[in-house]
Amino acid sequence: ASLREIDDAFEAGAFVKVPYPGVFDPTDELALELSVLTDVSSTHDGTIATFGPSYSRMISPRLRLGSSLSTTYATENYMDTYFSVDANNALRSSLNQFEAEGGFKDVSFGVMANYQLNEQWGLIGIVNYKYLLGDAADSPIVDQEGSEGQFMFGSGVTYRF
């Protein structure tokens, strides 16, 4: 709470998914996914790239279950903004000075369930666990005040056109 506030970042990027349907069963899909996001707001002036496989399968006519594994690479500018502690922030807090370098930032594992209520409407639930690596994990922000492991839970409603 005593560190300088970081402005919200606005990022632009691209997402590519290469699906391989019917790997083990006619209703399953293995896919390779890549997303790249770059700051367009001058908040961190960096880029992150996330890559990994996903797998999903129809369990019943209405229920699809899936899982994903990914890793994220972050440039030095991104890592410096979110994980470095400069002299000013060290004075404002009890944290040691630290300069984060670019590199692999995390590894993540997630599971997903999608239940189709009818032709258009569905429900989705997601649980994801992310483990910070390298300088992200070594940062005093994480090492002294935070945690290397992070859970994320989400739910939503889907609509098909």
Relevant terms:
161 residues; seven-stranded antiparallel beta sheet; mainly beta; 4 helices; elongated; 7 strands
What can you see in these coordinates?
- With 161 residues, the protein is mainly beta.
- It contains four helices and seven strands; from the N terminus they run E-E-E-E-H-H-E-E-H-H-E.
- A seven-stranded antiparallel beta sheet has the order 1-2-3-4-5-6-7.
- A hairpin with a 4-residue loop joins strand 3 and strand 4.
- The mean pLDDT is 95.
Instruction: Give the distance, in angstroms, between the N- and C-terminal Cα atoms.
Output: 44 Å
Helical content class: 10-25%
Q: Strand count, sense and closure of the main sheet?
A: 7 strands, antiparallel
Mean pLDDT: 95
Could you name the ranges where pLDDT drops below 50 across 5 or more consecutive residues?
A: none
Find the structural class using helix and strand composition. mainly beta
How many strands?
7
Write the layout of secondary structure elements.
Layout: E1 11-21, E2 28-39, E3 47-58, E4 63-74, H1 76-83, H2 87-92, E5 103-116, E6 121-132, H3 134-138, H4 140-143, E7 149-159
Short synopsis of the structure:
This protein is mostly beta strands. It has four helices and seven strands, in the order E-E-E-E-H-H-E-E-H-H-E.
